[in-house]
Amino acid sequence: MCDASCCGPSVVSNRRVAVNVFDHRAHNIDRLRRVISLFDWSVVTCVTEISAMYARFLEALTSLVYTNVPVNVVRLGPRDPPFITPVIKQLLRKRNYLRRRARYLEANSLAEKINLLITQSRSSNLIKLANANPKQLWAAVKSSVNTGSRNHSSAHPLLNDVHAVNDFLPAYLFILLVKDAPWLHSLHPTVLKIS
After folding, report:
1. For residue 98, what are the contacts with CB-CB under 8 A and spacing of at least 6?
2. Does residue 107 fall inside a structural domain?
3. Which of 33, 129, 138, 193 is the most exposed place for a label (fewest CB within 10 A)?
4. How high is the pLDDT of residue 132?
């Protein structure tokens, strides 16, 4: 019952795109089923030409869906990451609304659902790249790293300085090794000296 735009259009231009997202909750779908079963289909079957009958069928079904299933409009822009689908963006909006109203338990449970959807979206995008050529792979890397600004910084400030990484990583790994290896504690104290 989801239209093609619900899966998320690829935003190529620098403009925001409005996408319709249908409310798929059970009571809306049940109402749609009931209305479809009660609909008078004689307006569709009275036509003898198959293409005209199909056009009337689509017109009737579309009007039934739009009148019985609520539609939310979500706008996707060029700065939205590729894993943000219209459904995820709608849920993010609802989560933010709940947090502004201090309904933190509901917002946190919705956040867990959003995280699961984002994980599924990212994994499906990675599965699509399984048979990609190097050019497509690098394009995917650039789109996932690029935030639209020229002064893009790394995920962690430690990674901006190569010398800090070279100093930090061996010391951190050595601490982990000492913690997991009790035999190292018996060595001379100057060997275990970490500065």
Report:
1. 104, 106, 107, 110
2. no
3. 193
4. 76
Could you give the percent of the chain with pLDDT greater than 90? Answer: 30
The model's pTM = 0.55
Number of domains composing the chain: 1
Range of the domain at 180: 157-186
Between 61-70, 133-142, 145-154, the lowest mean confidence (pLDDT) is in 145-154
Could you tell me if residue 181 is inside a domain? yes
Cα–Cα distances in Å, from 18 out to 15, 84, 174, 179?
Answer: 10, 14, 52, 54
Of the candidates 83, 92, 116, the residue with the CA atom closest to the CA atom of residue 10? 83
Nearest to 174 by CA among 189, 187, 184: 184
Q: SS in 3 state form for 40-109? A: CCHHHHCCCCHHHHHHHHHHHHHHHHHHHCCEEEEEECCCCCCCCCHHHHHHHHHHHHHHHCCCHHHHHH
Q: List C-alpha distances in Å: 34 to 89, 113, 171, 173.
A: 30, 30, 67, 63
Question: Does residue 78 sit within a domain?
Answer: no
Q: Is residue 8 part of a domain?
A: no
- Interatomic CA distance for residues 139 and 151, integer angstroms: 19
Weakest mean pLDDT among 69-73, 89-93, 173-177: 173-177
